[in-house]
Amino acid sequence: MFLRSTATVKSSAGRIAILALLAACGPNQAVDGEQYVSVLAGWGGAFGLVGGTAARGVARGPGVLLTYALPTSAPTPEQIQAHVSRPGDFADGERLYHRWCARCHGAGAVSSSAIPDLRDSVIRLGDGLAAIARHGLPGTGMPALGAELDEADADRILRYLQEQSPQH
Ligand code: HEC
Question: Of 26, 107, 117, 155, which shows the fewest CB atoms inside 10 Å?
């Protein structure tokens, strides 16, 4: 979905007018064959109206009406599946990475930045990364995982990380 436009709702009268509009039209709209979905975000939703004393004193930012246009050529579920999970070594590398590395280096090979992001490391270390996976970095928090991963497994993880790196 693509963000097409936003409108800031400044007054409660404006909020109520938009709520009434949404209630009258429903949240899904088609204009010239293109479908839109609108949602209210921030202050101005139902909680502010019906929350009573619980809603008093909570932060009041401006309410925002977000309208998204649905892409006309959305990918099919099969296309999405083919992108997130590929057959063969890549899928094995992805699975092995998430089994043995992701809990420290981050899901999808994206580090939280507390420890090295392996998408960068793989550019600098090349094949050396697979050796580190098996032998660890003694004296640091990087464990030796050779008992869990043979050389072929470490190579599969290496190839998965190479595909995730921006230089791929
Ligand atoms: C228990 C947490 C943990 C696990 C699990 C883990 N690592 Fe690490 N890894 C670290 C830490 C911490 C460092 C940083 C060590 C240092 O330099 O102080 C590191 C560093 C590395 C480095 C060096 C990065 C660089 O840029 O210098 C590589 C390569 C690496 N890990 C690969 C892997 C792979 C591949 C796996 C999975 C097979 C894995 N690690 C699993 C914690 C972990």
Answer: 26
C-beta of 143 in contact with ligand 1 (< 6 A): yes
What pLDDT, in 10s, does the model give residues 81-101? 666 666 666 778 999 999 999
Best substitution site from 142, 150, 153 to test ligand 1's pocket, by max atoms within 8 Å of Cβ?
142
**What are the boundaries of each domain within the chain?**
2-69, 77-164
Q: What is the CATH number of domain 77-164?
A: 1.10.760.10
What per-residue confidence (pLDDT) applies to 49? 66
| pLDDT at residue 33 is higher than 60 | yes
Interval 62-88 mean pLDDT = 74
Q: Is residue 104 within 8 Å of 116, Cβ to Cβ?
A: no
